Amino acid sequence: MAGRINDDDVKAVRDAVPIDAVVSEYLQLRNAGGGNLKGLCPFHDEKSPSFQVSPSKGLYHCFGCQAGGDTLDFVMKIDHLSFSEAVERLAGLAGITLRYEEGGYTAGTSGRGDRIRLVEAHKAAAQFYVDQLGSPEAEIGRKFLAERGFDQAAAAHFSVGYSPAGWDHLTRFLRGKGFSDKELITSGLAQDSRSGKPIDRFRGRLMWPIRDISGEVVGFGARKLRDDDNGPKYLNTPETAIYRKSQVLYGIDLAKKEIAKTSRAVVVEGYTDVMACHMAGVTTAIATCGTAFGGDHIKILRRLLMDNATAEVIFTFDGDAAGQKAALRAFEDDQKFAAETSITIAPGGMDPCDLRLAQGDAAVSGLVEARTPLFEFALRHIVSRHNLENPAGRAAALAEAAPVVASIKDLSIQHESAVQLAGMLGILDEQFVVKRVAQLARWARERGQGDGPQGGRPGGDRQRGRPSHEVAPAPAVQPAGGPALNLRSPAHRTERELLKLALQRPALVSPAFDAYGIDEFTAPPYAAVRQAIQDAGGASQATDDYLARVREAAPNDTVRAMVTELAVEAIHAKTVDEIYAGVQLVQVRLRAVDRRVLEIQGTMTRLSPQAPPEQHAAVQQELWVLQQYGQRLRNRGAEGL
């Protein structure tokens, strides 16, 4: 078994892979000022970005949920990896060969993390399937692709492959690569047979590798090609440690950059539809993998779309009953998006793949542009279920549709939609419908079941029971070992600024900072950070690994999180220079001097007249020295330190 990874190699991995490059594989990052980047936190739901990345420091921190750390911490948390697995993954990206201090380095040993092994097995399987697509047996698969307008280049672009029809072709291949039978079963690439020996799960099928947002192959979609195949038309990888069908989107690895760039995502229903859209120039197309579009898929897209005002999600569905049902399910999740949601249905019930074959690439791009707001589609569907030829039918349709319109939080859009609903129903008195919708919206707010009006699109602040014009209070920072920080306290604000300077710009506060006592920081969490800096050698000893040493010196995860937060948070000054640093140094020291003066004055008051004269003299001398020092600081500023 491979042992502990060499410390120098761990440091090399940390230094070699920029944190912003890793994080941007999972979410869109934008400039946050001060050299930092920001995005929607991948670890909790939020409406506006509070997740910040500092490329220069190699750290991230979320000011909403307090998650934070370095590149390895991020990979460990987002992909649920152990420390060694995270190091191994990043080492693979950087092309670094790791050394193990107990037993040396052995490629592919059982000491590699389980998740890494499963990913490696899928990567090897994907290449195996790609290679098999060129075999004589795979002619049926190549014909299938050609009939749908996909040439060899298209197949290669999407890494489409073929699984041989025999029982254990892949199993034997992966065994030869050093994978155990247990790993093949656990990965879902093989399954137990009646004889007790593993056999290939996918046989005689066209294979699409399913990648997560970081580009790792985590599963496969397999399409039936032969009539004698008694299995389902599409067979997907079963749920495994690395594959959850509700948490993956086919094509997201290819589409994510364009989705982030254009603030648009196109959701289609199948693998060939994704291929057709991309071949037609709609490179933001993605699809679910054998399941309905749901909440976890929304989270993936929101991190890429950043919930900006111009973001849009377009659903394409077949025109049949199943397609309409899927569209209505998508509408149920519409309020979870801040993005606009639309729907487009191809003529004649064709999917994008069929449409491209019949009418060419331009028809596919035109289909996407000819979209209808999903809200309007759902409203028309509701209205269509009622007989509008008589008053009773119109009343019933209004009763069902009005609450849907009332749920819109933007008052202007709500009003326009109410007028639109009146037209759909054939009710000439538009104001009657408008007033009815407004009344329902008001009742919902009063019951605490709806959000108040918002100046933006439907969506706003979706926290139930809170009017949308109110901003939910940020959670108090309450690290263990101290009370919640009161940032309205001038002392706490200044101590925080000084610590940020000591972590981010240590040269500006050195060497004076290292002479400050732990007790000069009145907030216990800040005192703990000051202690960690001291234990790491002090600000004057800052080198390339300074922040890493401070984080390692922290006594627990709470203090370590505070170090990360202070290292990432912007310094509150337009110009961060020696003058600003000097002001913070003086303020913290001056408050400490003033506190000590008050303590000594109290001591003098309590001294008995019978106390020895030398005791009185010593106390008075200390008081005089401190008062003179305090006056010097007030008069001369940092020069008086």
Automatic annotation (TrEMBL):
<feature type="region of interest" description="Disordered">
    <location>
        <begin position="445"/>
        <end position="488"/>
    </location>
</feature>
<keyword id="KW-0639">Primosome</keyword>
<dbReference type="Pfam" id="PF10410">
    <property type="entry name" value="DnaB_bind"/>
</dbReference>
<dbReference type="InterPro" id="IPR006295">
    <property type="entry name" value="DNA_primase_DnaG"/>
</dbReference>
<dbReference type="Pfam" id="PF13662">
    <property type="entry name" value="Toprim_4"/>
</dbReference>
<dbReference type="InterPro" id="IPR050219">
    <property type="entry name" value="DnaG_primase"/>
</dbReference>
<feature type="zinc finger region" description="CHC2-type">
    <location>
        <begin position="41"/>
        <end position="65"/>
    </location>
</feature>
<keyword id="KW-0548">Nucleotidyltransferase</keyword>
<dbReference type="InterPro" id="IPR006171">
    <property type="entry name" value="TOPRIM_dom"/>
</dbReference>
<keyword id="KW-0808">Transferase</keyword>
<keyword id="KW-0460">Magnesium</keyword>
<dbReference type="InterPro" id="IPR034151">
    <property type="entry name" value="TOPRIM_DnaG_bac"/>
</dbReference>
<comment type="subunit">
    <text>Monomer. Interacts with DnaB.</text>
</comment>
<dbReference type="InterPro" id="IPR013173">
    <property type="entry name" value="DNA_primase_DnaG_DnaB-bd_dom"/>
</dbReference>
<feature type="compositionally biased region" description="Low complexity">
    <location>
        <begin position="471"/>
        <end position="484"/>
    </location>
</feature>
<keyword id="KW-0479">Metal-binding</keyword>
<feature type="compositionally biased region" description="Basic and acidic residues">
    <location>
        <begin position="459"/>
        <end position="469"/>
    </location>
</feature>
<keyword id="KW-0235">DNA replication</keyword>
<dbReference type="InterPro" id="IPR030846">
    <property type="entry name" value="DnaG_bac"/>
</dbReference>
<keyword id="KW-0804">Transcription</keyword>
<protein>
    <recommendedName>
        <fullName>DNA primase</fullName>
        <ecNumber>2.7.7.101</ecNumber>
    </recommendedName>
</protein>
<comment type="function">
    <text>RNA polymerase that catalyzes the synthesis of short RNA molecules used as primers for DNA polymerase during DNA replication.</text>
</comment>
<dbReference type="Pfam" id="PF08275">
    <property type="entry name" value="DNAG_N"/>
</dbReference>
<dbReference type="GO" id="GO:0016779">
    <property type="term" value="F:nucleotidyltransferase activity"/>
</dbReference>
<dbReference type="InterPro" id="IPR013264">
    <property type="entry name" value="DNAG_N"/>
</dbReference>
<dbReference type="InterPro" id="IPR037068">
    <property type="entry name" value="DNA_primase_core_N_sf"/>
</dbReference>
<dbReference type="InterPro" id="IPR002694">
    <property type="entry name" value="Znf_CHC2"/>
</dbReference>
<feature type="domain" description="Toprim">
    <location>
        <begin position="263"/>
        <end position="347"/>
    </location>
</feature>
<keyword id="KW-0238">DNA-binding</keyword>
<dbReference type="Pfam" id="PF08278">
    <property type="entry name" value="DnaG_DnaB_bind"/>
</dbReference>
<comment type="similarity">
    <text>Belongs to the DnaG primase family.</text>
</comment>
<dbReference type="InterPro" id="IPR036977">
    <property type="entry name" value="DNA_primase_Znf_CHC2"/>
</dbReference>
<dbReference type="Pfam" id="PF01807">
    <property type="entry name" value="Zn_ribbon_DnaG"/>
</dbReference>
<keyword id="KW-0862">Zinc</keyword>
<keyword id="KW-0240">DNA-directed RNA polymerase</keyword>
<keyword id="KW-0863">Zinc-finger</keyword>
<dbReference type="InterPro" id="IPR019475">
    <property type="entry name" value="DNA_primase_DnaB-bd"/>
</dbReference>
